[in-house]
Structure prediction request, 361 residues.
Amino acid sequence: MKKSIGISPNIETLFGTRDENVRVLEDGLNIAINLRSNSIELEGAARDVARAEQVFADYENLQRSGYGFNNGDLNSMLRVLTADPSATLRGLADAGKQRSMGRRTVQPKSPNQRRYLEAIEKHDMVFGIGPAGTGKTYLAVAMAISALMAKRVNRIILARPAVEAGERLGFLPGTIQDKIDPYLRPLYDALYDMLDPEKVDRYLERNVIEIAPIAFMRGRTLNDSFVILDEAQNTTSEQMKMFVTRLGFNSKAVITGDITQIDLPNARRSGLLEVLDVLKSVEGLAFVHFDESDVVRHHLVQRIIRAYDEHKMRAAEQMALPGESKRAESKRAGAVADGSERPAANRSRNEPKPESAEAEG
Prediction:
């Protein structure tokens, strides 16, 4: 099916730098888009052409209503739209407008990020699990700031286990705050990215925003709070149970982690791995899983994560092969023992040899 539509004002924004947005639509919807002198030609299956036509119509309506697309946001919206048949450009733009996080308006850049934000809005406890660079922590901090700005909570509490990533840093100098700050730096980075530095400092001084190791959570009941536990894969079973039972009235909790980057000693099982089994059937909370397609960092990060996953699968297959070989050898040994299969050397001398093809002739 072919269809021609008119060219709307500022269409170059929709096409993107070097037509990168058009390529997203073409690949995602399996259509061809060609720019003519006075029209845009769409070619493909009728349903896919209709979806592309709706994208162009929504873009024109949003432009007329004064909506401005930030750099990269439109490309992210189109990726979500092509992956989710129920999504529309207008719907994604409206969702982005509703999530104003201090200095920024955060726009989900993948279907899983969209589900993550919706889960945080609907549930009091959400687990975001996936590889690095998928926006788990950043989006959780953004939602916490949004809740604080809207006065839905009175404070934000950000916690993290103080575990080194494969290194032993020894004793750090300074006060207790100086010692733990290096472990909590990613949380500070997200805060300063979304709020004015002066406001962040003021909130920290007044304990409106509190950043602390998870060890400081014991014995507390957190009411009217938005609580985030980052790097949860490095919590022990006891720490995880302690944290998820801190939730008080009118509070939300978001727990994020990457189960492929556990830095705990081998003898201690990750609390995040355990909670996947323990709480999987509990009502009122949600699990959102991310993968390499949700990575919003440099495009190489996606490829690196995919390469590690493939390497892990190959290693698992190689580990399984010796076991299969042993089972095959055991089976052959059993066959020899019961006489159903005997080596030629062990045949009785009186047992006739099989006739050759020439003898049969």
About this structure: The longest strand covers residues 155-160. The two ends are 68 Å apart (CA to CA). Confidence is low (pLDDT under 50) at residues 165-170, 342-351, 354-361.
